[in-house]
Amino acid sequence: MRRVYFLIMLCIIMVAASGCTHDDLDPLNYTPSSSNNSNSSSTAVPNNTTSSSSSSSPHTEVSGKCYKVVDGDTIDVEGVGRVRFVGVNTPERGDSGYQEAKDYVKSMCLGKTVGLDIDDSKNKDKYDRTLAVVYVGGVNLNQELLKKGYAEVMYIPPSEFNPYGWT
């Protein structure tokens, strides 16, 4: 009798376990995640890609609406979070040129969809901000900040981008 009870319990457990291993992936919509070569403390960036957006360039991986401009080189983007413009540095609060740089970025980004080309070599900084080149209307905003004199080059390796070529 014990043996029968044991076999029944074993069958129930096997049936229950097989129901828990259902694969929910839809093979028609499955896209494998790309490998991330950054250090283990970084967080994966959402893959909210949109195709042929007027705000992006062929290089953008993610796009979203800019809902806040923090300063001249940092914005907040829906679906991504805080984004730091890679390769450039604008004046800090209280420094000469701070307000001009921030106002320029506001005029270009705020309330608009921006495209991001995320740095594949290091996608997050020490403050957990996504490091990226920001595109608005197909224009590299990082490069424009340098050309217009609102920013200086700030190259911190490793980075896939060479901001010295933007000047």
UniProtKB/TrEMBL annotation:
Sorted alphabetically, the keyword list is:
Endonuclease, Hydrolase, Nuclease
> Where is the stretch described as Disordered?
32-63
Look up keyword Nuclease and say if it applies: yes
PROSITE patterns, A to Z: PROKAR_LIPOPROTEIN, TNASE_3
Name the InterPro entries on file: SNase_OB-fold_sf (IPR035437), Staphylococal_nuclease_OB-fold (IPR016071)
Which segments show compositional bias classed as Low complexity?
Answer: 32-58
TNase-like domain residues? 60-167
Q: What SMART domains does its record include?
A: SNc (SM00318)
Listed GO MF terms: endonuclease activity; hydrolase activity
User: Which PANTHER family does this chain map to?
Assistant: EBNA2 BINDING PROTEIN P100 (PTHR12302), SERINE_THREONINE-PROTEIN KINASE 31 (PTHR12302:SF3)
Protein name in the entry: Thermonuclease family protein
Q: Which organism is it from?
A: Methanobacterium subterraneum
